Backbone:
């Protein structure tokens, strides 16, 4: 046994044919068995004459079908359906299908143009022509293009598209600016009240007469008024004097400070 | 230069020193075949010239990432076919003055094309082919003129063999009818 294994190993290593494990032992047993059987039947020559075959036959593919059946035993419901198809087809469907045009086409046909006599009769020729040396020139041209190092794409700022975009943007900006300039009312910083409206009216009409002193006070920034008072010739502390000194400030001066 | 194996072309391409040699071999091997394949789709020689150029540029750029999942020639043919169809669609989009499809314009131009040398019946055949839908037209040209095996066509056009056979049969039938009635 040891020798056999060593022999196998040696054979494999040297690239020679190897043998299945236990080959010689099995082979020897088989030969001994046959000799023993023949010895047993020496006394029965008739039996020896009859060939050692099983007279029974089985249907074709019996064992493979049996295998399939046995596979389904573990699925009783599936097994019970037994491949019955619920689908039906029209009468003579398969017979007609075999003879239909497309089915014939789908089979291996030597001459696909059978039935197309006009097409078959035409001479298969290439009617398109090209200039002389086209392919050699094309090859050289392509080689030049493909072997040239790839240039970095430079996108010009002055392209037509960009010029159109800039012009459109300019028109929009100008339009917004013009709208704001001409149509938006004059806004004063602290505006948002009726006093603002009054101020605009005053600036336009310079009409202070309809306003009393309290209203005037509201319209004019007190800090500015104080400044004006300080700048006037006489400086008074009480309100009465301040009131009278208001008369020293001209309408225009007040309007300037609204 | 004799026909070189595609695997050798790819090997030459992978080495930077022999890349240009690979390009040269590629062009020698495929240029003419691709040109005629393209020409039968786009008809015009000038358009074929453009498409052929674009095809080789795309092949050259894409060869680095070619994974060899398909054969080189099927990949190349696929690029050529797609580029041809792209050109036809671009022409269709630009063709705003006519209500007819672009194939009608190609068919008309064929009559006065200097690069068409066929007789009357060949002209009728080409015009009949132009009436087919684009994929059917490609199938017909590849099978009728180039006698491309269906298995090869299936890899190029990514369509089953059965569908291609059916497509060819329908195309041949249509053309036969046109020629008989012409």
Residues:
């Amino acid at each position: 046994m040891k020798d056999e294994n060593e022999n196998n190993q040696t054979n494999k290593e040297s690239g020679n044919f190897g043998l299945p494990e236990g080959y010689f032992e099995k082979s020897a047993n088989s030969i001994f068995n046959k000799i023993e059987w023949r010895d047993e039947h020496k006394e029965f020559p008739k039996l020896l004459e009859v060939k050692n075959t099983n007279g029974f036959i089985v249907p074709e593919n019996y064992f493979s079908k049996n295998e399939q059946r046995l596979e389904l035993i573990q699925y009783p419901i599936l097994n019970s359906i037994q491949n019955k198809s619920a689908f039906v087809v029209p009468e003579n469907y398969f017979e007609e299908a075999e003879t239909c045009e497309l089915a014939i086409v789908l089979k291996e046909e030597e001459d696909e143009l059978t039935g197309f006599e006009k097409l078959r009769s035409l001479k298969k020729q290439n009617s398109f022509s090209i200039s002389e040396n086209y392919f050699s020139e094309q090859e050289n041209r392509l080689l030049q293009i493909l072997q040239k190092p790839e240039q970095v794409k430079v996108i010009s700022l002055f392209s037509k598209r960009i010029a159109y975009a800039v012009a459109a943007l300019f028109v929009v900006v100008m339009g917004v600016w013009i709208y704001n300039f001409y149509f938006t009312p004059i806004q004063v910083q602290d505006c948002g009240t009726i006093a603002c409206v009054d101020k605009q009216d005053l600036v336009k009409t310079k009409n202070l007469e309809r306003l009393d002193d309290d209203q005037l006070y509201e319209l004019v920034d007190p800090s500015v008024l104080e400044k004006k008072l300080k700048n006037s010739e006489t400086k008074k502390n009480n309100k009465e004097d301040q009131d009278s000194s208001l008369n020293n400030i001209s309408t225009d001066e007040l309007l300037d400070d609204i | 230069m004799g026909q070189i194996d595609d695997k050798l072309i790819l090997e030459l391409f992978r080495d930077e020193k022999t890349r240009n040699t690979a390009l040269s071999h590629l062009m020698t091997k495929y240029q003419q075949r691709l040109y005629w394949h393209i020409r039968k789709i786009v008809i015009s020689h000038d358009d074929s010239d453009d498409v052929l150029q674009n095809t080789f540029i795309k092949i050259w750029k894409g060869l680095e990432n070619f994974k060899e999942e398909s054969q080189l020639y099927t990949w190349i043919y696929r690029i050529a076919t797609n580029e041809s169809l792209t050109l036809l669609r671009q022409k269709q989009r630009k063709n705003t003055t006519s209500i007819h499809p672009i194939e009608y314009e190609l068919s008309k131009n064929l009559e006065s094309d200097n690069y068409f040398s066929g007789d009357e019946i060949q002209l009728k055949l080409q015009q009949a082919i132009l009436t087919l839908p684009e994929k059917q037209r490609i199938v017909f040209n590849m099978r009728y003129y180039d006698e491309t095996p269906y298995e090869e066509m299936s890899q190029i056009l990514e369509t089953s063999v059965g569908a291609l056979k059916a497509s060819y049969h329908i195309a041949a039938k249509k053309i036969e009818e046109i020629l008989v009635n012409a």
Remarks:
- The mean pLDDT of chain B is 87.
- The interface with chain A takes residues 20, 23-24, 27-28, 31-32, 35-36, 39-40, 43, 45, 49, 52-53, 56-57, 60, 115-119, 121-123, 125-126, 143-145, 162, 165-166, 168-169, 172-173, 175-176, 179-180 of chain B (CB under 8 Å).
